[in-house]
Here is the input.
Amino acid sequence: MAPRRPDKKKAKKSGKGATSRDAGASGANEKPPSPQVLVRAAELQLQAGNVQDAATLAEKALEGSSPANDDALCALNFLGQINLELGDFDAARAYLLRAVAIDEDGAKDESIGGGPEKFLTLAQLSEEGGQDSVGWFEKGAAALRAQIQTLESASGNGKGKQSDEQSSVLEELRKKLAMTLCSVAEVYMTDLSWEEDCEQRCESLTTEATMVAPDFAETWQTLANVRISQSRMDEAKAALNRSLELWKDLPPEDPSVPHFPSRVGLSRLLMEVGMDQEAIEVLERLVGEDDESVEVWYLGGWSLFVTGEKQKENKAEEDYKASWISSRVWLNQCLHLYKLQDYEDDRLGEHAGELLAAIAKELGEAPVGMEDDDEDGSGWEDESDEEMQE
Here is the structure.
């Protein structure tokens, strides 16, 4: 749940091209445009999708800035963002490191490239990972805490009353801080799991995250992950239920609903603690939002297969057959998309095939005409209905 860069926003081009051209060129007797004007023009070009033009303007802004001043910080920060868009991560890292040299603690205003964002991006771009990533995340967290404290103090001076705008900004900052703390915990659970203080650090990080943003579903999801690593399954289930309750009844467009990849991860955690029905409900919702995700179809098929195994152990013959028929629907669609998209996860494809073979051994092959090469996918639901009637 690492902090995410906002998606590019497409903007109307009318009136902006002229601004950018004026910023990029000047007559012989005209004063060259200021670095601020050039960066603003570069932002407009980036919003319009003209990444190379934006980069050219931002470079001119940097050339026209005095070293280590606010104009240079703004240009460097923006060039880091542009190179991320271009996929040149080495260049992005180099620009952002130069920006850090100007704004070492993120205390400068975000409008000129200050704030925590560059630290959080450098954490994600770290080639070393581990402690290097943690160091950058912690610098970002410190900058976020300072921003939160400043806003809280300002509202305190106003007799405790906050405007709607202040409340919204504070909520977003707390959410971003919680995301950052969860990202550090995830580094400890993966790259730094061998550290002696790993468990203690994860405990303190997730505790702070849930206190800072108790209504942010992904903090409870991270806490559940920590509890699973500690084999404290009942507490993991409680945390997962808390996470689900915060968004499961909300419409997809609600900002409180976790991002798609986060919910895919959530479904895996639910399966790991045996909350199979909840996992299937999450996956069904994900398929409704994106029916071309190989991983989601695979996880749904796997979860239904596990559900059927449990029903079979409990001698619920009709129930387990129904679950495995549904599992076959999901797994067939998974492999259909797997081939169509030339999916690269070989182990996923192999496991899906193994599950289908186990189902076929027990229930026989799927009805004729319902194989996994259905071109439009229209047969997936029909197969389940047809087999249930046999």
Summary: The mean pLDDT is 87. The first helix runs from residue 16 to 24. The chain is about 70% helix and 0% strand.
